[in-house]
Amino acid sequence: MTLEEKIKSLKTPLKSPQGDNPYDLKQTLIQNHNQIKPFIHNTPVLTSQLLNEKAGCNLFFKCENFQKMGAFKMRGAANAILSLSEEERQRGVVTHSSGNFAQAVSLAAQKLGVRAYIVIPENAPQVKKDGVRTYDGEIIECESTPQAREATANSIKEEKGATFLHPSNQDEVIYGNSTAAMELLEKQPNLDVIVTPVGGGGLIAGTALAAHYFSNNCKVIGGEPKNADDAFRSKQSGKIEYNSTVNTIADGLRTHLGDRNFPIIQTYVDKIIRVEEVEIIEAMQLIWERMKIIVEPSSAVALAAVLKHKEEFATKNVGIILSGGNVDVKNLPFG
Q1: Which residues of 236-270 are buried (b: 16+ CB within 10 A; e: fewer)?
Q2: Is 160 a catalytic residue?
Q3: Of 48, 62, 68, 73, which residue is the catalytic one?
Q4: I want to staple 176 with a disulfide (CB 3.0 to 4.6 A). Which of 26, 76, 77, 324 is the partner?
């Protein structure tokens, strides 16, 4: 089976812009990028000479911490809702999340006049609940277990007829996420590698598709907390692995891969680099102090991976996707 056939086997593809429905994922990604452009920022790409010297390579940071609602999740959420039929939009959307995707779905739905039902664990931080309400998301609280979240979301789906949106394991979300790397490659077409954080797999899968279709042999590498290394183990074993514990400061990376994104990761991602908690904190502090921008711990994992394996990236042009900047500034891991 060729690479194209592996990806094609994931799902019947979206129609091409020409409407004749050939299988052309590259055209689908371009189409999806065009449709979400009015709803997202084309975020800046920043550099730092000091960090270049420290890493021993040329770093190009795609700053999704400057994205609407503060994270790349806006891209996938907007694309997923825009891909719905008018009838589906009228019935609303539902997701379960206590983090960035909850806010992304709420904001995208608000912009498109769609009702958003957001299932959130009752013990989620109040600041995150407030963020969802800011964008008019309708919060439904549940017990703090994966089973309760899924059961509550399914109940709303059945009762309201709302369409369920998955934060990372849905084709339209993955395609929307790919647009960050597409924009990065437009500005820096000579990248040798792009490094992203790995959590649920939606960002790195989208990045891998973008690199395959829009670059000249650019590799994709993931950075992952060693304390939540399911993606590393999944790539080694060839099947989706799970974490028994997720004791990491990178709270956005505590989820696991899914059956939609894992085949893409297996096919197109070169490797996953695991990093220690202290390495994540040090990388986060470096970005704050040297680049003067706010990033959350999950974003810093990609830089931590580069700094841990300097020899692998030496003298190369390295893109890093800073996934988001939604952090509690009153509770930082450094003084």
Answers
A1: eeeebbebeebebbbbbbbbbbbebbbebbbbbbe
A2: no
A3: 73
A4: 76
